[in-house]
Design brief:
about 280 residues; alpha/beta; Rossmann fold; 8-stranded mixed beta sheet; 12 helices; 8 strands
C-alpha cells in the first residue's frame, strides 16, 4: 500500500469511529480524532448553534470554521459540501438555498453517509442528497454547482491540488467556493509530522499557507480572499504525547503558526464549459 492509500485508510477508519460517537464524545477530540483534549476542540471548532438551519443531530463537533456563513449562498443555488460528515454544513446550506435549490454532500466514509442520510430522512429534507465518494474524484458532473463549501477536510487529503482541480470542474462558470481549513506557517516538529493521530486530527496533513493559496490560483480561480483567520494553539498535554519538554519549549519559541482560515474564490465567468473540456 502506498503512502496516500495508507493515509486515506487511516482517515476512513478514524471517521468511521467518529460517526458512531455522540457529539459529547467528539468534544474530547481534535477534528474528531482521539488525540486531543477538550481545549483543542474549543479552539478549532466554531459555534454553529446560532446559524439558521442548524440541526443538533448532525453536529459531531468537527470542523475548524463556519464556511456556510461566508459562502454567499442564494435561494435556488446548487451547493456541494465536500466532506459532509453527518450533514451539519449541508443542512445549514439548505436553509440558505431554500426549497428551490439543492445540496449535495460528498463524503469518503460509508458510515458518515449512512448517518447523514438518516438525518435527512428524519428531517424530511428531499432536496439534500449525500453521495459516497473521494473528493479527488467527485461523483458530481462538471459545471453543476453554484457554490462549494468544505469544513476542515482538504488537510486530510494527500492530493490537495487534485481537489482544487475537481472544485474547478464541478463549479459553474461564475460559481464560487468558501472553504475552512488548517494551514501552516513554518515547519512542524518531526514528532508531530510523523504522528498518524495528528494527521487524522487535522494538523500534520496541513500544508503551508502560501502553498495552499498558490494551489487555488494555479488552478484558475480568481477573486481569492481570506474571509477569516484564527490561530490554533495546541496545548502542552497534546504536544507531550509527541515531543519532549525541551522540544515543546523550542516549538513554543519558534515562529511556527497553525491557522484556521476560511478562503473564498471564484471560477471565472469565461472559464471553459463546453462538453468534454472540463472533464
Amino acid at each position: 500500500m502506498n503512502k496516500d492509500k495508507e493515509l486515506k485508510e487511516l482517515v476512513r477508519q478514524k471517521y468511521s469511529e467518529i460517526a458512531l460517537q455522540s457529539k459529547a464524545d467528539n468534544q474530547a477530540s481534535c477534528c474528531g480524532s482521539s488525540c486531543c483534549s477538550t481545549e483543542v476542540y474549543h479552539i478549532m471548532s466554531e459555534d454553529y448553534t446560532l446559524l439558521e438551519g442548524y440541526q443538533a443531530e448532525a453536529d459531531l463537533g468537527l470542523g475548524c470554521g463556519l464556511p456556510t456563513q461566508f459562502a454567499k449562498i442564494k435561494q435556488g443555488d446548487i451547493v456541494v459540501d465536500l466532506g459532509s460528515g453527518a450533514g451539519n454544513d449541508a443542512f445549514i446550506a439548505r436553509k440558505e438555498t431554500g426549497e428551490t435549490g439543492k445540496v449535495i454532500g460528498v463524503d469518503f466514509t460509508p458510515t458518515m453517509i449512512d448517518k447523514a442520510r438518516r438525518n435527512a430522512e428524519k428531517l424530511g429534507f428531499n432536496n439534500v442528497e449525500f453521495r459516497q465518494g473521494d473528493i479527488e474524484q467527485m461523483p458530481v458532473s462538471a459545471n453543476v454547482a453554484d457554490v462549494i463549501v468544505s469544513n476542515c477536510v482538504l488537510n486530510l487529503v494527500p492530493n490537495k491540488a487534485g481537489v482544487f482541480k475537481e472544485i474547478f470542474r464541478v463549479l459553474k462558470p461564475g460559481g464560487h467556493f468558501s472553504i475552512s481549513d488548517i494551514v501552516l506557517e513554518g515547519e512542524l516538529p518531526a514528532g508531530i509530522q510523523q504522528a498518524a493521530e495528528m494527521y487524522a486530527g487535522c494538523v500534520s496533513g496541513a500544508i503551508q499557507k502560501q502553498e495552499y493559496l498558490d494551489l487555488i490560483r494555479i488552478n484558475g480561480f480568481v477573486q481569492l480572499t481570506i474571509q477569516k483567520q484564527k490561530e490554533i494553539v495546541l496545548p502542552d498535554d497534546i504536544l507531550s504525547s509527541y515531543l519532549s519538554v525541551e522540544q515543546i519549549a523550542a516549538f513554543r519559541a519558534s515562529e511556527v503558526g497553525i491557522y484556521s482560515i476560511t478562503v473564498y474564490a471564484e471560477k471565472p465567468n469565461d472559464a471553459c464549459c463546453s462538453p468534454g473540456c472540463c472533464s
